Amino acid sequence: MKERLQKVLARAGIGSRRAAEEYIAAGRVMVDGCPVTRMGLQVDPELQQITFDGHPLSFPEEKVTVLLNKPAGYVTTMHDPQGRPLVGSLVKEPGLRLFPVGRLDLETEGALLLTNDGDLANRILHPRYEIKRTYQATVQGLPAASDLQSLRRGIELEGRRTWPAEIRTLRRRDGDCTLEVIIHEGRKRQVRKMFAAIGHPVLRLKRVAYGGLRLGDLASGAYRRLDPEDIRRIFQGGPAPG
Ligand code: URA
């Protein structure tokens, strides 16, 4: 795509557009080997070689983070030897290589972040930030209040105690019930293992919030780009009501 030369220089981090115009006027910019001093030349940085003081321009990749409502049946990896559908196939951001932040099980639905910002991904996953993950878990039967209390306090799972969890009942039905479960650990299949441990297997699991960032009314399989305010919400205490 063609753009004005001074805009391309600014995008490559050379300086402001005003500064770029001065560099052009000073003959420090070459396009396909020829010095360009004329303002406003339209160039295509994908197809043409542009240099500043003899150095080719490089463009820092735009940092993009998206929130996807992962449907059940999609794998949270970039590649699957079994050929199952990949979460990446739902995110159409040409030219950007977005990778999932953490994982959700094949059958788990809901909030999944994908980003090309490695530092942000590390901060989100680092236990130091204790980011709360909020799930809605539909489990078989009606767990006894005492069992829920032991899950809240923490139970032994594979030789390691779980951190305290917040659990409240959202809905009771014949044969199953739906609970809100808030944990800040990301152990593999943790919610499923916690409820299996008290004899109430998880029938359906959906992550509805990441810190204070809620999935909201995002349709299953849809995603949206996050803005800086959304990113701040991830690091905020708990999900806002609603
Ligand atoms: N806990 C689970 O059991 N599964 C998930 O996908 C996420 C949390």
UniProtKB/TrEMBL annotation:
Q: Does the keyword RNA-binding apply?
A: yes
The UniProt keywords, alphabetically, are:
Isomerase, RNA-binding
Molecular function terms, GO-annotated: RNA binding; rRNA pseudouridine synthase activity
Q: Which domain of life is it from?
A: Bacteria
Q: Supply the EC number(s).
A: 5.4.99.-
**Sorted alphabetically, which SMART domains does this protein's record hold?**
S4
Gene3D superfamilies assigned: Alpha-L RNA-binding motif, Pseudouridine synthase I, catalytic domain, N-terminal subdomain, RNA-binding S4 domain
Note whether Isomerase occurs among the keywords.
yes
The RNA-binding S4 domain extends over 3-65
Q: Which family does it belong to?
A: Belongs to the pseudouridine synthase RsuA family.
NCBIfam families recorded: pseudouridine synthase (TIGR00093)
Task: Give the protein's recorded name.
Answer: Pseudouridine synthase
Tell me which species this is from.
Desulfurivibrio alkaliphilus
